[in-house]
Amino acid sequence: MRSRARRYDESDVRTRPNPRGSRPRTKQRPDHDDADRALVTGVDRGRYTLLVDPDTGGERIATAMKARELGRERVVCGDLVDVVGDTSGAAGSLARIVRISERSTVLRRTADDTDPVERVIVANAHQLVIVTALADPEPRTRMIDRCVVAAYDAGMDALLCLTKADLADPAELVAMYAPIGVEVVVTSRPADGAPGPDGRPVIHGLDEVRARLTGRTSVLVGHSGVGKSTLVNSLVPDASRATGVVNDVTGRGRHTSSSAVALRLPDRSGWVIDTPGVRSFGLAHVQVESLLAAFGDLARVATDHCPRGCSHAADAPDCALDEWVAAAEGEEHAARAARVDSMRRLLAARAGEPA
């Protein structure tokens, strides 16, 4: 006798129980209304050092990680963030960064001039301090130009700090950057190199540097070996930033700072952010318009009178900047010519090979 085929129904289907529970996932995220405000003062391998409640008397240092909801958004030194969890700063405590506040300025760089990926270095800084040695190692003006371009693109002021004036005359570099509005401070060391009473290096001109940093958040950049870490240690005595020496063969320094760190000046009058030594400063992200905007007088002339698509370079046909220079006489002519030449030098730095 032939048996009939069995009919199956839903009772025969076995289902695996959900180990995570039956509650459906939701896209709704908590508001974190109870979050604390904090300043990011250091970044190290996925852990962030924070100064929680920096504007109150109850500020404290805490460690945090980035919350998953931030995704790929990068948290950098100088960011103002909202944090939840354990913000006590006790040993072993770990908070979570859940929000990044809108940034007033963003200092960026790319690996080179063809790299489309922007790398945010620092947020919410007021000025970029370009630390350059006058000798040992020799100054590299193209690198200075690139840093100035990056500062202007970020909406920051540029301050050129020339070190080791005891080894070379700063006059040429001062004259080169005055026409583009870059302020310059000069430091030097005693001829005998003797330390001060506290055992620290003596730096002439340090008071002038400190005056330019007061009331501001300043980012220090520069090649290794130019004296940047020595300067930081003098401005913030408990910073303990590692210092290095210049290689006698290559003429370049060894990287001594491995990560950006924000340091408060002793009198609480401002912040300095020390960055790792850089060998290049790619400007693929910078647009000509944003650079020209840093030169208000030139931008007005170019906007009103230059033909559409004008590159404003020295070989640009019918560039109104040439007529603007030619229309002036005497000292005014020289001043206009110097300013246009300087602006075009920065344009060339943006388009050329990294320094």
Report on this structure:
Helices cover 23% and strands 21% of the residues. By secondary structure, it is of the alpha/beta class. The chain has three domains: 36-100, OB fold (Dihydrolipoamide Acetyltransferase, E2P), CATH 2.40.50.140; 106-274, P-loop containing nucleotide triphosphate hydrolases (Rossmann fold, 3-Layer(aba) Sandwich); 288-351, no CATH class. It has a six-stranded mixed beta sheet with strand order 10-9-8-11-13-12. The chain has a five-stranded mixed β-barrel with strand order 1-2-3-5-4. Strand 1 and strand 2 (47-52) form a beta hairpin. Helix 1 (141-154) packs across helix 8 (330-351) and helix 7 (320-326) packs antiparallel against helix 8. The chain is globular, with a radius of gyration of 27 Å. The termini are far apart.
Chain-wise SSE layout:
Blueprint: E1 36-44, E2 47-52, E3 60-66, E4 80-85, E5 95-100, E6 106-109, E7 119-123, E8 127-133, H1 141-154, E9 157-163, H2 171-177, E10 183-186, H3 206-213, E11 217-221, H4 228-235, E12 261-264, E13 271-274, H5 288-292, H6 296-305, H7 320-326, H8 330-351
Parallel strand pairs: 3-5, 8-9, 8-11, 9-10, 11-13
Antiparallel strand pairs: 1-2, 1-4, 2-3, 4-5, 6-7, 12-13
